[in-house]
TrEMBL record:
Domain Glycosyltransferase subfamily 4-like N-terminal span(s) in chain numbering: 35-135
Domain (Glycosyl transferase family) ranges: 140-308
Protein name: Group 1 glycosyl transferase
Record flagged with keyword Glycosyltransferase: yes
GO molecular function: glycosyltransferase activity
Source organism of the structure: Cytobacillus solani
SUPFAM superfamilies (UniProt xref): UDP-Glycosyltransferase/glycogen phosphorylase
Amino acid sequence: MRQVPGYEYIHLIRLPEYIVDNSLLNEKVHYLNEISSPKEYVNKNNISLLHAHHGQFGILLLPFKERTNLPLVTSIRGRDATLANQPANYLENMKLLFDQGERFFPVCDYLADKISLWGCPAEKIRILYGGVDLNQFKYRSPKQDDSQNILSIGRFVEKKGHHILMQAFQKIKDKFPNATLTIIGRGELEGYLKTLSNQLNLGESFRLLNYLHKDKIHDHMASADLFCAASLEASNGDVEGIPNTIKEAMATGVPVISTFHAGIPELVTHNEDGILVKENNVNELAEAIEFMLKNRQLWKEYTIRARNKIEQKFDQNKQLLQQAKYYDELLYGN
């Protein structure tokens, strides 16, 4: 959890099985199911505010909020603003959350509009973009050699559009025999993507890499020539907010190709700091990749603008300060 200036966190986890990395366990991580008396727990730990980092977690914390009378903030990140694979009565429970919760932090205007349509009062909504650690993702000028390495990072799920990217790459790879495509992630569609790679005869020009340590991911980002995020609305209605990987690529100086999907146009301005195409459109994506590979002279200008935008609107330190201001506003009326 990133440190919000002036605030300390205690992390409530639903159950032990939700911990996927035991190295994250410390005295600040507690299990919600082990708290028998919320009031005593709140008093003992001097808690002044609850922050649920997903819509479902907000719903889960409503009884805790009722028993402690603490203000509740809920972040809205993507799928939680849709009915995609949600439990029964999810929309009704979200409307109850909108009524009883004090603040909602959607990660982009697109998701703010989605929850507004569901009935969330406008006065409770505060946009809070996710930020990038600019010390970790340092800008470097686009590579000027002859490499043509295309990178995509994201879970192996439909809304990431990896299957569309693979088909687009297949359309252009004969024109660019040195081009490679690397997709890094993990998830339920791994088998399908491997099968698709064989069907498209992508051969050694394509790599599908399972989950890597963040240091290795940084190495792949540093060696990439283009970053591509082919995000789309999944068949079940699942959507993105704004993928952090696009922000990281823009911060690093890797030219970006993505789609007019969800909050992405709030980050990438077409033909200024990246290229956007219609989502779920193989031909447009292939044309965009070909255009970028043929017009390397545009990369530096695009990436300088992209880095400037990240520094202005998506700097992690600035966003954490904004989050602290939103907390202060709620607690102290500032």
